[in-house]
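Today's session is about reading a structure prediction critically. Students often jump straight to the picture, but the first step is always the sequence itself: look for stretches that repeat, for charged clusters, for runs of hydrophobic residues. Only then move on to the predicted structure, which in these notes is written as discrete structure tokens rather than atom positions. Here is the chain we will use throughout the hour.
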Amino acid sequence: MEQDPSVLAIDRRRFLDWFLGTSVGALLVAIFYPVARYLVPPKVEESTALSVTLDIDPAEIAPNSGRIFRFGGRPGILVRTPSGELRAFSAVCTHLACIVQYRPDLSHIWCACHNGHFDLTGKNIAGPPPRPLEAFAVNVRGKQIVVSKAT
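Below is the predicted structure for this chain, in token form.
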């Protein structure tokens, strides 16, 4: 029993239509999903902690350096400026919630995700971050450092 060649051509055409349609759909999702995530950054939940005590001897932190610490459920960054002052900020970049780090070669805070730069007051100075970093109050009590939310 022979099959009609026109039926095979229709089946191949349907398969090619389905395959091309699915491929174009996947390509559009692959292009527009990252663009949409870039334009609408994820919501960052607010930490419920009001202060944390760090078991770090303030003398251990060298000038022009920084350290990451936990502030409630979120990371914070403690920076000793080149002049010796201690400052603390939220370590969550205001752009896409990446973790920032201190760059001693630039003497400011840097986000590696999209090359965002913050000065030592937490102000966004270059790159895509739309807002400054949240600043925390820093108090030294003996050999401990207490970081609190600024009120």
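Discussion point for the tutorial: Strands lie at 51-54, 65-71, 74-80, 86-90, 100-103, 108-111, 116-118, 124-126, 135-141, 144-149.
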